[in-house]
Amino acid sequence: MPSGARVAGGFLGGMLLVLLPMLLALGDPYWLDIVTFAYLMAGLAGAWNIIGGFGGQFSLGHGVFFGIGAYLTAILYTEAGWSPWITLAPAMLLAVLVALLISWPTFRLRGPFFAIATMAFNQVAFVLVNYLDWPTNGPRGILIPFRAGLANMIFVQRWRYAVLMFGFLALVTGIAVLLRRSRLGYALLALREDEDAARAAGINVLAAKLEGMAISAALTAVGGALFAMYLRYVDPPTVFTLSEVGVRFALLSLIGGIGTVAGPILGAALVVPVENWLRSTLTGLWPGADLVVLGAAMVLAALFLKHGIVGAAADLMGRRTRR
Amino acid sequence: MTAPLLSVQSASKRFVGLLAVDSVSFDVSAGEMVSIIGPNGAGKTTLFNLLTGQLQPSGGTVRLRGQVVNRLGPHRRARLGMGRTFQIAKPLTRLTVLENVLVGAFMKHRGLRAAEGKAVEVLAEVGLLDRARHSAGELTLSERRRLEVARALALDPEIILLDEVMAGLNPSEVDAAIELYRRLNAQGLTFLVIEHNLKVVRAFAERVIVLDHGVLIAEGSAETILATPAVIEAYIGRQRA
Known about the structure:
The complex is a heterodimer of chains A (323) and B (241).
Chain A: H1 4-25, H2 29-54, H3 62-80, H4 84-106, H5 112-131, E1 142-143, H6 159-180, H7 183-193, H8 195-200, H9 205-231, E2 233-234, H10 236-240, H11 246-256, H12 263-282, H13 289-304, H14 308-316
Antiparallel strand pairs in A: 1-2
Helix pairs in contact in A: 1-6, 2-6, 2-7, 2-9, 2-11, 2-12, 3-4, 3-5, 3-9, 4-9, 6-9, 7-9, 11-12, 11-14, 12-13
Chain B: E1 6-15, E2 18-28, E3 33-37, H1 44-52, E4 59-64, E5 67-68, H2 74-80, E6 82-84, H3 97-105, H4 112-126, H5 141-153, E7 159-163, H6 171-186, E8 190-194, H7 198-204, E9 207-212, E10 215-221, H8 222-227, H9 229-240
């Protein structure tokens, strides 16, 4: 086990490395936007990874928690004038509450059945938000007026958003690093491997899953809130489209290396820019071609990069091979 | 008079149409080494699962140090001092050997450093310290079995239930395992063991319980039991067939 000081050093070094693209992109609004979005997605994938990767509970319903963060912040800000910084608290609280309600029944399901059940919750949330005029404004969505200011989490200079998202990513990663070395972290890893063995080692499997899910959901809600203030617009398809949100978190973790601290960051670092590039170069030629290419790339990743970028890198360095 | 460490009274388990364990009663005192033997399908593993909480009994009571534990889940019983291994070893394959034991050590030691210290101590005890940084998936069968024991030991148990931990081991591995269990027993650890290998039973069990068709048919010292005609017929006779 590496010592605490070494882990802290690794975390700080890694975060400095992650900061680098932002510094390089400072003068270029196009790239700065991509970096900003990559930070946000990396943070969200990292939040998903806590229960999905460490705990092995393959949730496809995290769009619900993301949506709670986005909508609650948009509503409380526009209707009640709450600072988005303040709305983070109720957003996390509600996300945890909903997460526990969803998880209580679905954690009895294993593997793909759990994934499908959580995905269904995402679709229920989509339909519900789309249908309700109050408080979500139905399909018209909520437009957040531009009133710049730190208290409003709305900025004129785009780089401030990049710093904001970086802060979120650093928070999520820091929590993941701590968790990975904690009692709860080991409980999640153990139950991912074998629930009966985990029980025999004294682990309350259901409680550990619920705790992991609660942390994951709370952080995902924070990401949703930041997303709402960044885009200044929320509507049902933006927040609840599975391929854009709920499944995306899982995908980035998978590509980067599921269950590792660095995996979600690497996944986002690779996928978000490539996606943007494909969209800008291929869409003009043949609408939808970017999605075809992206889909094919993901199939290849699933076939040949089973342990993600982290796993492939470890293979290259010979760490996974026997002695 | 002190209560027995483990006390089983009329424990039964009925699966649809099958009484797998039929009103079995026995006690295990602290410091004993007790073997459960019986032919395949006699209900040994089902009985184990009733004791460890993997299964809920259909009737009867299980007491640990006098406390009724019938309604406690496996993790609660593990924390109360009842460790177990599985018939098919369940290593947490993607974790290192050290992490496998750490998982259990965290139950009694809050901080990472303390838990790690405990895990290292336990690995040294079972002779796996040199494998600590290897992934558990790389271990040989006999090492996996010792890892299971180590994971149980990390919770400072008072009794360990071993489910056929000798199966598939070669003679020298069996000897090493017997030596390990005897040493742990000498330190005060109680063992309840499902074992097929009668040589092993003779070598280390002071007392033997015989199950057949879910019923306890005999109980006594190893020498007496293994000489009882009914036992030989029920168990060894069918083993040869």
